[in-house]
Amino acid sequence: MPHPSKFLVLLLALLALTVIACESRSDEPLDGEISAITTTYPLTYMAQRIGGDRIAVTQLVKPGVEAHDFEPAPSDVLAISTSNLFVYNHPALEAWALNAASASASGSEASLMTIQTINLESAGEDHGGQAVDDSNFDAHVWLNPLKAQDQASRILAALVSLDPDGAKTFIRNADALNVELRAMDEIISDQLSGCALDSVVVSHLAFGHMAERYGFGQIGLAGLSPEFESGPAQIATVIDRINELGIQHILQEPIVSNRLAETVSAETGAELLVLHPLEVRTKAEADVGSDYFDIMKENAESLRKALQCG
Ligand SMILES: [Zn+2]
Q1: Structure pTM?
Q2: Cβ atoms within 10 Å of 13's Cβ, excluding its own
Q3: Which of 59, 186, 198, 227 is 20 to 30 A removed from 52 (C-alpha atoms)?
Q4: Ligand 1 centre and the CA of 305: distance in Å?
């Protein structure tokens, strides 16, 4: 008779494997399909758009899960090891990615291609104007649709090299995606013209690449990662800035706790609006099939209100 707690652990592990097996059934690659593992939603969306029906994509960070806190489970490493392609953003967001990829590669007989979709040169200077390194780099580049194009082009290159017969299809799909990303950039630029304010208060400093592109400043209730919450002195400074600048909205992301935002709202009378860092979708968004462009349009609308534009 095994020790009850060990037995429980074993049972839970088996249950977890069963759940994973059920959830991923729809993503099982068919014969000849590229099997890809992505970390976050924008990468999933781009891989699906470009790969079309020649790819099966499984996203590791599930809807509603905070991406900065994510650590891969052994089953995730196993999933990577049995795939053809592993796609992540940058070690500043997925510090675990390279280790997981090398553990997966050593445990698998098939060849695994791993791609990092952001490099520091193409992503440009950090919005703080500091020297860019892995520790203070803002990895949320997909929030600027023109920088998302760089990520898409890296995914395209990987797919072409894994499946040369699909090259024409992939290039056509990537072209269509690029046209939409350019149009999205124009929509946001239009929405954010003629604004009364030039700063927004955000739940975490995820919006540096948008701020740089569309010409506004972000004041964070937390840092580059939501778990690094500010202390009372920093919150008092944020409250002062809100009052000084006449800011009337606090832009709160949907997945992390809004406790701090509620507190600051109660102090200042500023209203909460949703601004989505789009690391992963909420469960509700995934259920109704809201995609990258739907959510970016909502983001543009929230920013237009918060900056008092047009
Ligand atoms: Zn983030």
Answers
A1: 0.86
A2: 13
A3: 186
A4: 22
